[in-house]
């Protein structure tokens, strides 16, 4: 006869895995999006592209947020301090992270972007989280974090345009490193809000602030004639980035962030070079080198080590059925 307690424990264990699955899905969507952006960059101005993607998704977010809050009889209001924080995070994400990445890559290369713009973000996040006493240093962090970073270096180190420092990339590298700090502040700031407010409301405010900050660029850098010249493929890249990479990606990202916290969440960022390499192979016909295979293995092993203590904690908290398994 089936034990209800064991069924409950199994359901609880599966539910605890969903945030991890969520982040894997997010970085699959974002990895594919890098190839989509490369295709779209042949036709779009980066600031116009980012501005339009935010403008496209804002109406969907507010319609969903309205229905979500009305059904649960929740308020749209939040204290000015928190409203200022979520709007600031929206501007930080849209201009300080998305636009800065594309601008920085004009003065650096994609390999440096993967390492400095994304690879350093978990390191910055853990340092800030330790200083703020939001996490404690454990052996899994001490081993897993350097291993994941080594995996990123392996993925981007092979061939022309690999990771390197030099006067030719210094300007872009400084901006990429600054982006990692911005990304860490974004994770910590959003983590403080997702426990207090409904996710649809936070996303609506965040994306609206991002859209408003980018709208002046859309209005001044484009016109109807230029938009008419965009091919169906170009519009397809915009729709993928807006609806899947941004709308779905940020929703899943922040829902999982609420369960895992800023450091555990940022560590999944190391999957991006791996998923981007697979996306480039599928969509652009780019080869995958032995460096990338080895780097991918390092990253996957490091993800297990970093998340292992969380999974052990989750299992220890599950109540045991009396009398053992039958």
From TrEMBL:
Protein's cellular compartments: Cell membrane
Keyword line: Cell membrane, Membrane, Transmembrane, Transmembrane helix
EamA domain mapped to chain residues: 20-156, 171-306
Chain ranges passing through the membrane: 12-32, 52-71, 83-105, 111-132, 139-162, 174-194, 201-221, 233-255, 267-284, 290-307
Main location: membrane
Residues making up the signal peptide according to the UniProt record: none
Keyword Magnesium: no
UniProt membrane topology term: Multi-pass membrane protein
UniProt family annotation: Belongs to the EamA transporter family.
Protein name (database record): DMT family transporter
Organism: Paenibacillus chartarius
